Amino acid sequence: xxxxxxxxxxxxxxxxxxxxxxxxxxxxxxxxxxxxxxxxxxxxxxxxxxxxxxxxxxxxxxxxxxxxxxxxxxxxxxxxxxxxxxxxxxxxxxxxxxxxxxxxxxxxxxxxxxxxxxxxxxxxxxxxxxxxxxxxxxxxxxxxxxxxxxxxxxxxxxxxxxxxxxxxxxxxxxxxxxxxxxxxxxxxxxxxxxxxxxxxxxxxxxxxxxxxxxxxxxxxxxxxxxxxxxxxxxxxxxxxxxxxxxxxxxxxxxxxxxxxxxxxxxxxxxxxxxxxxxxxxxxxxxxxxxxxxxxxxxxxxxxxxxxxxxxxxxxxxxxxxxxxxxxxxxxxxxxxxxxxxxxxxxxxxxxxxxxxxxxxxxxxxxxxxxxxxxxxxxxxxxxxxxxxxxx
Length: 391
What we know:
It contains 15 helices and 14 strands. By secondary structure, the protein is α/β, with parallel strands linked by helices. It is elongated and about 65 Å long. 44% of the residues are buried.
């Protein structure tokens, strides 16, 4: 089967959508299918990267260049491009759109031209994602645009129950909705550093052998609520010694967060590791003892599953997507306020045996997200839609 994935975001971006696209490509190729990507390039000239199997449509020179520390992808103002002719010749069997905007419009055009089905996955909770920017405007925009944009698709894929709610809220749901969570390469996240390499990495960040490390890995943007995480950690430091907070990631909020750390007298306890390439991210999970997040903007929350696969118990702000992966008191805890955070964090910090047991439970709880299971669900859906289209 030939599958074309369209996405606004692709490498060198690093966010949940990029991770999802890379995982989808890997899972489908492992199952023997041919997968290519259509995305927006960072230049004003279109080209095809044969080695990576990626079509890069030229970005618009009239609009601002993408800010890769934030969330803005490159953009385009046209739907005609000579590169599309190459895609017509290649002739995919199905298109899977992973965003709602420019590349989906291209996907719609291609699907109509060669008469193939188009499916779409909603990744973004636009309400929470833009809660600090102009939530009412975004909700209005989505309700106006989403039904029109999604009209040509045959299936809308959601990642969680929350995703299905969002699809219906934005005016979707007039066609088939299927829930397929993004899979993951479990073996990648289950890698462990050998002791000398781990000690070397710990030393580079000033982490002592007896320190308990709370780790968060995300883009440093407002919707991830990292400042709230630091606030909770600050209160925890008043109760416990030998704890560190390791923050992995980069973004426009980084300097503001550093200033907050200084104001809270946490410079000896909070470590900013900065941007880490995805192929090395497993090493940083290996440095952690507990994964912590205060984000309320997740749709599926790949970081939840990554940390669980790495054997880290979760300590996460209560949110609907957590219901898909968190078993309270078994592979982690949720919290809604500072009191709950402190209570549950102290359980994990004080009781090493319980923390390690919950870590083992965490690793075992994500088998349902394996690449093979993920690929099988997608292929079954694709085959159904291709057969319907032929009828």
